[in-house]
């Protein structure tokens, strides 16, 4: 991805157990970090001169929503050219290998996938349009 994004929101299915929710955010974050150029800032030095690896340079709110909210975000974002989306499904989380995940996902239509997490990156207005009505994950 070469676009410059201003915001990236993570939406997690509201009924996931805490450990599964954290795993979902971690999985989504790995993909966002890999595919969204410039999201991670440069290393910074402390007063002792010790370098600290760069962290995210833009806001990353963690929100919660119903499974239908996640599906709707995925479907609506497909029509927005300047929005980057990573989705995570119960299929991915329950698969024992990437091959199993690939095979099982191929059996389901986009609208039928059991979404448990979605990361949406883009302009503030685009991300807010897709996620603005959802509450913070607490």
Automatic annotation (TrEMBL):
Q: Which organism is it from?
A: Streptomyces venetus
InterPro entries with a match to the protein in the record: DUF2000, Pep_tRNA_hydro_II_dom_sf, UCP033763
Q: Which domain of life is it from?
A: Bacteria
Q: What's a Pfam family this protein contains?
A: DUF2000
Protein name, as recorded: DUF2000 domain-containing protein
């Amino acid at each position: 991805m070469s676009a410059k994004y201003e915001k990236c929101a993570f939406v997690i299915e509201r009924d996931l157990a805490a450990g599964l929710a954290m795993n979902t955010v971690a999985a989504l974050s790995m993909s966002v970090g890999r595919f969204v150029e410039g999201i991670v800032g440069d290393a910074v030095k402390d007063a002792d001169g010790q370098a600290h690896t760069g962290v995210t340079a833009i806001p990353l709110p963690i929100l919660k929503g119903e499974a239908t909210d996640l599906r709707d975000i995925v479907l609506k974002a497909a029509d927005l050219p300047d929005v980057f989306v990573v989705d995570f499904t119960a299929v991915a989380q329950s698969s024992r290998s990437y091959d199993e995940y690939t095979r099982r996902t191929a059996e389901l239509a986009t609208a039928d996938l059991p979404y448990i997490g979605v990361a949406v990156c883009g302009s503030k207005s685009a991300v807010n349009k897709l996620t603005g009505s959802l509450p913070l994950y607490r």
